[in-house]
Each structure stands twice: as structure tokens, then as C-alpha cells.
């Protein structure tokens, strides 16, 4: 059957740098997604005030996007394997851009949460294909550098998010934090149309079928699991709602894994997890992004509600984390290739852990601005050293011929980690605010709640470090 995908512009396809133009398009998708995510994290305190709701409610603006992203990611990836990757990727840009436009017009919190879920579906279409397109377009020996640039693009998006978000929130209001993504989405759509190659005909097999049963089991497994984690601070642990959500999530997950091991064309290639190094690397991906988004969530509230900073000032301070992440990501990729991702990742997590403990112990006093910024810079540098080499090593640990599937799972790990970070951090913060009675206050009581919540991130850093060290030593070439 003739491909429905639009061909790239011939003059661009003939250029020797065409593979790197493709990398540029995938980096554009990564940039847009992270720009939106970090802007929204900073805007949550403003949204809570604007809609007159508490942390328990406003966090769903972030979680709805991440949950829809996670639920649609694997399904989108499988559909793309069957239909080709260019059209779903372009559809992802279009849907994400349209939803961003509509988010800025929402009149109620419920409308905004629903539109954020729609935006998450667009993000899932982008995330399901970005890493796979990158991996298939660049020679194996160039992939560490390409993944390094991909990670840097994400970091730049996360870095600009707090800065641009602070300016937009103070100058124009919260609606503009969503509208800011619209021109970037339109530009990325045009770039993708002109640059991305058609999917190879040989990559689509005539007898492939979509595993409907696997998709039906995966969505509630993820959705109910995130719901249970997010509502820990709202529902008692032994309540019927909590037990039903957690139990059903586990049941659906077990059934999904059983189904995928027997399906000829599974939604997720779970066989990859039989390789210990891949499993440990995937765990590192999840923990690394849980650290990043958990810290962005907590520090946004710490600066705005705890230290009474304006959105502009809070954004500039918060940008310290992703700026250092972006600066160190290329170095992390090179060090991972030279002295192994195992050692580089462990060193990065040691830096993150030291930064978190420093924030908890000494960095929230009124005269501790420099110490606080140094701790945030250390945290960003540690993530920069960890994320890029860990992602590459995880893909490299997959068996031959499974690099594309591994890339898709790495993207799934990223969004699951982001969801875990926001859910766990927000639940801990809500719980501690409830204990102290500081839910509607600002100042020292709020800071104390944030300090205690940071210990959750310390646990994530320990798990990530252990996962990195659990990878078997091997020479990187």
C-alpha cells in the first residue's frame, strides 16, 4: 500500500546533514514538551490562587497531562510501528498545539484539567516517536551525541520554562503560559513536515495486528496506580477507595504482563526487561525524572508560598536546576562513553543527594540565598551527569535489533518518572501541610512542610544511584 506520509523536501533530504536535521526536529519536540511542563510547574501556585483551590486540587493540572501522556504513549508507539511514525508525530504537534491554545481559554479548573489531558495525548504521540525517529536516523556511533543533544534540548525547554513563565505570570497572567507554546508548536509542525523522512516500508509487516487487549489492560493499570499514589494524602490508606484503586492497578498490571508475554505483536516489548542492565537503566530513567519534576514542584511552592517570591524571581531561581542540567548533559554523555555510564551516573546521583540534604539542613534560612542557589546548581549538575549517559546505556543494553523498542520504553520511563515525582511530592506536601494546619498559609510553616517532603526525593536519588551501580561493568567504546 502506498504511504500516506508526506515526503520530505528533496533538497533537504540530499544534504549530508539531513540526519542531524531530523535530530533537530526531535529536539524541537523535546523542547516544546519540557517548556510546557516546567512553565506549568511554576504556575501551579498562581493557578491555586486564581481558582481558589488547594494543592490537592491544583496538582491535577500537572498530573492530568502526565497521566494522559503515560497512558497514550505505549499505545501510540505500537500504532506508529504499524502505520509509520511521521504522521503520528505530526499529529502530535498539531494536537499539542491546539490543546495549548484551548488551555489558555479555560474558564474553570475542571475544564483546564480536561484540556491538559488532551494535551497529554498529543504529548504521548510525540514521545512515542521522538526517540525512535532519532535512533533510526543516526548511526550507532553517533547516538550518544544525538541523545546528548536531545537531553540538552529538554533541559533548555525546562530552563526557559521558569524564566519565561515568571515573566508571563507577572506581566500577562496564567493564560499566556499555555499560549506561549503555540508558535513553537506551529514551527515544529512545519519543520517535521519538510524534514522527517517517510517510514521505511520494510518496517511495517503485512500481518501485524494491534493488541487491543494489551492496550485495554495497560491504561487502567497506569491510571489507577497514579490515582492511588496521588490520593495518598486525601484518602486513608485503608479506605475502600484506596484499596480498590491500588488493588485494581496491581491486578491489571499482572494481567497486562501476562498478556504481553504471549502476544505476537505486544503493545510493550516486556521481553526487554529480562536483561538486567536494561531493567536497571529503566529504573534509573524513572527515578531521574521523578527527581527533576518532584524538585520543580516543591521548589515552585517553596519560593512562591514559603519565601513569598514573585513569579519572576521564583522562575529565575528555579531555572538554576535545568540550566546546569543542560550545561552538564553533553559532558555526562562524553564521560559515560569514556569512564562508563555506571560510574558517571553514580557520581551524578551522589551530587543530587548531597544537594537535597543540603536544602533540608541549611538552605532555607532568610540569609541563605547563595547556599540555596548552590544546592540547586549541584542538583541540576548531578542530573546532567546522570540522565544522558543512563539513557544511552539503557538503549545500548537492549538486544540487537531492539533499539527502537528500547527508545520507546525510555520515553515511557521519562513520563512515568515525571508523573511519579509530581504525585509523590504533592502527596507528601499535602500530607505535611495537613498535619501542620498550614494548607492556607504562607511562610515558615510552609517551608517546614517542603523540607520534610524533600526527603522523598532523597529516597529517589538513593534508588537511582543503586540502580546505576547494579549495572554490570563494561567498557564503553
What order do the helices and strands come in, and which of them pair?
Elements lengths: L9 H4 L4 H34 L3 H29 L2 H18 L5 H29 L5 H29 L3 H5 L1 H15 L16 H19 L9 H23 L13 H31 L4 H8 L1 H20 L1 H22 L6 H28 L6 H34 L7 H27 L7
Helix pairs in contact: 2-3, 2-5, 2-6, 2-8, 2-11, 3-5, 3-9, 3-16, 4-5, 4-8, 5-16, 6-12, 6-13, 6-15, 9-10, 11-12, 11-15, 11-16, 11-17, 13-14, 13-15, 14-15, 14-17, 15-16, 16-17
List keywords for this structure.
mainly alpha, 2 domains, 477 residues, 79% helix, Growth Hormone, Chain: A, single chain
Give an overview in words.
The protein is mainly α. The chain folds into 2 domains: 10-198 and 265-470, Up-down Bundle (Growth Hormone, Chain: A); 212-264, no CATH class. Helices cover 79% and strands 0% of the residues. It has helices spanning 10-13, 18-51, 55-83, 86-103, 109-137, 143-171, 175-179, 181-195, 212-230, 240-262, 276-306, 311-318, 320-339, 341-362, 369-396, 403-436, 444-470. The two termini are 41 Å apart.
Order of helices and strands: HHHHHHHHHHHHHHHHH
Radius of gyration: 21 Å
- Number of domain modules: 2
Through-space gap between termini = 41 Å
The SS-based structural class is: mainly alpha
The overall strand count is: 0
- What portion of residues is helical? over 70%
CATH topology heading of the largest domain: Growth Hormone, Chain: A
Amino acid at each position: 500500500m502506498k504511504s500516506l506520509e508526506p515526503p520530505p523536501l528533496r533538497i533537504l533530504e540530499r544534504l549530508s546533514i539531513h540526519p542531524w536535521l531530523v535530530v533537530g526536529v526531535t529536539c524541537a519536540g523535546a523542547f516544546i514538551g519540557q517548556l510546557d511542563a516546567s512553565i506549568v510547574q511554576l504556575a501551579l501556585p498562581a493557578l491555586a490562587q486564581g481558582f481558589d483551590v488547594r494543592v490537592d486540587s491544583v496538582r491535577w493540572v500537572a498530573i492530568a497531562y502526565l497521566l494522559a501522556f503515560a497512558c497514550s504513549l505505549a499505545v501510540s508507539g505500537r500504532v506508529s510501528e504499524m502505520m509509520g511514525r511521521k504522521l503520528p508525530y505530526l499529529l502530535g504537534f498539531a494536537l499539542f498545539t491546539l490543546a495549548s491554545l484551548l488551555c489558555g481559554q479555560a474558564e474553570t479548573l475542571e475544564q483546564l484539567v480536561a484540556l491538559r489531558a488532551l494535551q497529554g495525548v498529543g504529548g504521548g504521540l510525540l514521545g512515542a516517536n521522538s526517540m525512535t525517529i532519532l535512533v533510526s536516523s543516526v548511526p550507532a556511533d553517533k547516538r550518544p551525541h544525538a541523545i546528548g543533544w536531545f537531553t540538552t534540548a529538554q533541559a533548555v525547554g525546562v530552563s526557559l520554562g521558569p524564566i519565561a513563565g515568571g515573566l508571563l505570570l507577572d506581566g500577562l497572567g496564567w493564560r499566556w503560559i499555555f499560549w506561549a507554546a503555540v508558535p513553537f508548536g506551529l514551527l515544529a509542525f512545519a519543520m517535521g513536515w519538510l524534514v522527517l523522512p517517510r517510514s521505511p516500508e520494510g518496517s511495517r509487516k503485512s500481518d501485524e495486528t494491534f493488541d487491543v487487549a494489551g492496550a485495554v489492560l495497560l491504561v487502567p493499570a497506569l491510571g489507577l496506580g497514579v490515582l492511588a499514589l496521588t490520593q495518598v494524602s486525601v484518602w486513608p490508606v485503608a479506605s475502600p477507595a484506596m484499596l480498590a484503586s491500588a488493588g485494581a492497578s496491581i491486578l491489571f498490571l499482572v494481567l497486562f504482563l501476562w498478556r504481553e508475554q504471549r502476544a505476537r505483536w505486544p503493545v510493550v516489548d516486556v521481553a526487554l526487561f529480562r536483561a538486567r542492565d536494561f531493567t536497571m537503566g529503566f529504573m534509573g530513567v524513572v527515578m531521574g525524572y521523578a527527581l527533576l519534576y518532584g524538585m520543580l514542584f516543591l521548589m515552585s511552592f517553596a519560593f512562591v508560598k514559603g519565601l513569598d517570591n514573585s513569579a519572576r524571581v521564583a522562575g529565575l531561581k528555579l531555572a538554576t536546576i535545568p540550566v546546569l542540567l543542560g550545561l552538564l548533559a553533553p559532558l555526562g554523555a562524553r564521560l559515560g562513553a569514556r569512564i562508563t555510564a555506571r560510574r558517571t551516573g553514580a557520581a551524578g546521583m551522589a551530587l543530587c543527594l548531597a544537594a537535597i540534604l543540603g536544602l533540608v539542613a541549611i538552605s532555607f534560612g532568610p540569609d541563605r540565598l547563595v547556599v540555596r542557589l548552590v544546592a540547586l546548581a549541584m542538583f541540576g549538575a548531578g542530573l546532567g551527569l546522570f540522565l544522558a549517559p543512563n539513557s544511552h546505556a539503557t538503549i545500548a543494553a537492549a538486544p540487537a535489533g531492539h533499539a527502537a523498542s528500547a527508545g520507546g520504553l525510555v520515553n515511557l520511563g521519562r513520563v512515568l518518572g515525571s508523573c511519579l515525582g509530581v504525585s509523590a511530592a504533592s502527596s507528601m506536601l499535602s500530607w505535611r501541610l495537613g498535619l501542620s494546619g498550614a494548607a492556607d498559609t504562607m511562610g515558615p510553616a510552609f517551608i517546614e512542610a517542603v523540607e520534610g517532603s524533600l526527603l522523598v526525593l532523597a529516597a529517589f536519588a538513593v534508588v537511582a544511584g543503586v540502580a546505576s551501580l547494579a549495572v554490570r561493568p563494561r567498557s564503553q567504546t
